[in-house]
Write a structure and sequence with these properties.
Elements: H1 26-29, H2 35-42, E1 48-52, H3 58-71, E2 80-84, H4 87-99, E3 106-109, H5 110-125, E4 132-133, H6 138-147, H7 154-169, H8 177-184, H9 192-209, E5 211-212, H10 214-227, H11 229-238, E6 241-244, H12 252-262, E7 268-272, H13 287-290, H14 292-295, E8 300-304, E9 306-307, H15 312-323, H16 328-331, E10 337-338, E11 347-351, H17 354-369, E12 384-388, H18 394-403, E13 408-410, H19 420-433, H20 447-456, H21 470-491, H22 497-510, E14 519-523, E15 532-537, H23 553-567, E16 570-579, E17 637-638, E18 645-646, H24 649-654, H25 666-683, H26 693-702, H27 707-711, H28 718-732
Parallel strand pairs: 1-7, 1-8, 2-3, 2-6, 4-5, 6-7, 9-10, 11-16, 12-14, 12-15, 13-14, 15-16
Antiparallel strand pairs: 17-18
Helix pairs in contact: 2-3, 4-22, 5-10, 6-9, 8-9, 10-11, 10-12, 15-23, 17-18, 19-20, 19-22, 20-21, 25-26
């Protein structure tokens, strides 16, 4: 899909805001495509599978493929059905095809295409009119729960509704729900039998009232095509060629509908990326993409790996995330190659608490949007996004951005064309287009001038109002319409105000809103398919990413893919941050997400070797006296929080800057101090001879679990490891130690355990 900031129904050239002329002929359609995209565009016979990484121009490839086929006379426009997953994506595809000279091609969502066919064939297949469509099923689900004498709170109601939707797209009937959910490893929000009863009652309520839901549209269309071969044949005569975008998100029900459309033909092109499968909770599965060659043995497979979106630094991090992935989707991951010039390294930021993280993010955004001539980054606010795991995280960032006087917009909030000021503006522009304006000077003005004059009567001004709030929000909406008019006039020199109004109507029908000049706040799921110059990924702690309820290996890997999607939204600037505690003054017990292990400075990948590690991170000869000694770190030591090279001995011992937030386990630190005092008394030496305060702090922050992990902490040499290692590891595990009285060895060690000082600590 397109960029968040420059997406439009008017197709673009190679840069945001530029518009390409309609190609003069079929060969000209291929101009500007890279070799792999050209292969996609010219492979018009048989099944084609396009494996397209993030930012590799997949929409460009498939729209040029359709346009090339149409312009070369190999495809009739009315015989092509291009299917995607959102109205916005379908609207964009239609716009691009129109600009490429392939108007008349059907580009729709699965639901839209199915509903259109259902409405057309229902009188013939069933008789009468299609039942009324219920857009929001939550109220019916709530009523079904009440009839089943089950009380659901707001969150449970939403979750049970989601379970019903999942059941329907996986073609699971109510009586089978408990067994199928258990087999699928789903964690039901309520007792599975209860959900099954609510599901059955919900279906009965719909039948009683003669209504259907969105999933029924697909189910009923599948039913008609399966039962009425004459209707299926009629659909197949109409549509000879199919293109499916985002194929990794296809559900079993959508796949079944696609198979019925296709029949026994292989005139199908699918596009997808298994590494961007993030909607499995809705029934989506990448299996159809990964099994494509099995179902279509003669298929052409094209891999798009040239990333035109992100800098090499962003792409390197994205590739690193997937390099640690596991599972079937990971086996088919694509190694992206950036086609852009180098940019800044990703920034990793740790904060003491969540409010501090929000405020720090807002400050950095303020710096980015400050004009270059004033010492800032000069990045437009609309080119910046703050992405989080759950919507509940947005409130802190809304407040922080408002306090910093940074405009923002919530993605997934009220739809643009449903805002009162936008509806009112549409009515006024429609009236002006019909000659009802009271200003005669408008008749000879260009489109942008006419729009500015009309909207100026309702609050638009060349300069934005000060501050934030409702007045600013209203102005941002009207300003977005003005910018849209300017872009439209640039792409359609001979167009009139009536043409613009028609374009607005088409956008409203597709919910394809223009850009609002403000920072985007969105969940990682809502950001799929979009891109920005600068992206802030926030709240990246264990328990949030991966989310705490992700238990199975498959669920954990989907969380990793979700972070990958977030990283690949960034074109140039990327910041990843986390807070060590929830509230100010809270215990700093949180850890950054495991997915960044081995990628952020000072961290080590899970499963990586601890001795002699790859990349020369740890080198050196074995300790004297035999093989297998503990290897010591050489070379620079970096802060494990901010990544700065450390030179101060105390900071090097802590492996962090003094000013960086601490991850101290305070209870462990106190236990270690008490233990050290007891050991010092037994030895008759000062406490620092056992371990210094800095070493104890480093241990309490790192909480080592094995001897090799303990040995990597500065101040823990071979002698102290042998003498005190077992006690320290036992304290780190939370075990109580017997009082250290008798039993010291001849060397006077105070350790209360014998044998290999860390052997037992690795057995958990």
């Amino acid at each position: 899909m397109t960029a968040a900031t420059s997406s439009t129904l008017f197709p673009q050239g190679s840069t945001p805001g530029s518009y390409a002329a309609t190609p003069r002929d079929a060969d000209a359609v291929l101009d500007g495509l890279d070799p792999e995209q050209r292969e996609v565009a010219t492979s018009l016979h048989g099944a084609v599978c396009v494996l397209a990484g993030a930012g590799t121009g997949k929409t460009r490839a498939i729209t040029h493929r359709i346009a090339y086929g149409v312009r070369a006379g190999m495809l009739q426009p009315a015989s092509v059905l291009a299917v995607t997953f959102t109205n916005r994506a379908a609207g964009e595809m239609r716009g691009r095809l129109r600009q490429l000279g392939a108007g008349g091609v059907q580009a729709r969502t699965f639901h839209s295409a199915a509903l259109r066919q259902l409405q057309y064939f229902w009188p013939k297949a069933v008789g009468g009119e299609v039942p009324r469509l219920v857009e929001r099923k939550v109220q019916l689900v709530a009523e079904a729960a009440t009839r089943c004498r089950v009380r659901l709170d707001r969150n449970e109601l939403r979750d049970v509704t989601g379970e019903i939707e999942w059941s329907k797209v996986t073609q699971t009937v109510p009586e089978d729900y408990p067994a199928v959910a258990a087999k699928s490893g789903r964690e039901a929000p309520r007792d599975a039998a209860e959900i099954g009863r609510i599901y059955a009652t919900y279906e009965q309520l719909k039948r009683d009232r003669g209504v259907i839901d969105f999933e029924d549209v697909l189910l009923l269309t599948v039913g008609v095509l399966q039962e009425r071969h004459d209707i299926a044949d009629q659909v197949r005569r109409q549509y000879q060629h199919f293109v499916v975008d985002e194929y990794q998100d296809v559900s079993p029900l959508q796949q079944r509908l696609l198979e019925l459309w296709l029949g026994d033909r292989d005139s199908l092109c699918v596009v997808g990326d298994a590494s961007q499968t993030i909607y499995s909770f809705t029934g989506a599965t990448p299996d159809h993409l990964l099994d494509f060659r099995t179902r279509h043995p003669g298929a052409t497979v094209v891999k798009l790996i040239r990333d035109y979106r992100s800098t090499p630094q962003v792409v390197h991090l994205a590739n690193g995330l997937l390099s640690q992935a596991r599972g079937r989707a990971a086996e088919h991951r694509l190694e992206l190659v950036s086609q852009r010039e180098a940019g800044p390294d990703p920034v990793y930021a740790a904060y003491a608490d969540e409010p501090a993280e929000a405020e720090g993010t807002a400050r950095r955004i303020r710096e980015l949007i400050t004009p270059v001539e004033q010492g800032g980054g000069g990045v437009p606010a609309s080119q910046i996004a703050v992405l989080y795991r759950v919507n509940a995280q947005s409130e802190l960032y809304e407040q922080a951005l408002a306090d910093a006087q940074v405009p923002y917009q919530l993605r997934g909030a009220e739809r643009f064309f449903e805002r009162p000021e936008v509806r009112e503006a549409g009515l006024l522009l429609r009236g002006a287009a019909r000659g009802r304006s009271t200003d005669p000077a408008l008749a000879d003005a260009d489109i942008p001038s006419q729009v500015r004059a009309v909207l100026g009567t309702r609050g638009w001004t060349p300069e934005p109002p000060a501050g934030s709030g409702a007045v600013r929000d209203r102005w941002e909406s009207l300003a977005a319409l003005v910018r849209l008019a300017e872009d439209f006039a640039g792409s359609r020199p001979g167009a009139t105000l009536s043409d613009l109004v028609a374009e607005l109507d088409e956008r409203a029908a597709a919910q394809h809103a223009p850009t609002v000049e403000g920072v985007t706040l969105a969940s990682l799921h809502a950001a799929k398919g979009l891109e920005w110059d600068a992206v802030f990924l926030v709240g990246l702690t264990e328990g949030m990413v991966p989310i705490t309820y992700a238990k199975t290996d498959q669920q954990i890997e989907e969380e990793r893919r979700l972070l990958y999607v977030g990283v690949t939204r960034a074109r140039h600037h990327l910041t990843l941050s986390w807070a060590l505690s929830r509230a100010p003054g809270g215990r700093a017990s949180r850890r950054p997400t495991r997915f960044l292990n081995g990628l952020r400075p000072g961290s080590q990948a899970v499963g990586a070797r601890t001795l002699g590690g790859a990349g020369g991170i740890e080198r050196g000869a074995a300790a004297p006296g035999g093989g297998g000694g503990v290897r010591r770190r050489r070379g620079p030591v970096h802060c494990r929080v901010c990544g700065r090279a450390l030179t101060d001995a105390g900071e090097m011992k802590l492996m962090r800057c003094e000013g960086c937030p601490s991850e101290l386990d305070e209870a462990l630190y106190e236990r270690l101090r008490d233990w050290r005092a007891e050991q010092a008394g037994l030895l008759g030496q000062p406490a620092y001879c056992v371990f210094t305060d800095k070493t104890l702090l480093a241990i309490a922050e790192a909480v080592p679990g094995t001897g090799s992990e303990l040995a990597r902490i500065a101040g823990v040499g071979r002698r102290k490891l042998d003498r005190f290692g077992a006690d320290v590891l036992a304290l780190c595990e939370g075990r109580e130690l017997p009082s250290a009285v008798d039993g010291e060895g001849d060397d006077g060690a105070g350790g209360s355990h014998s044998g290999d000082p860390w052997q037992n600590s690795t057995e958990k």
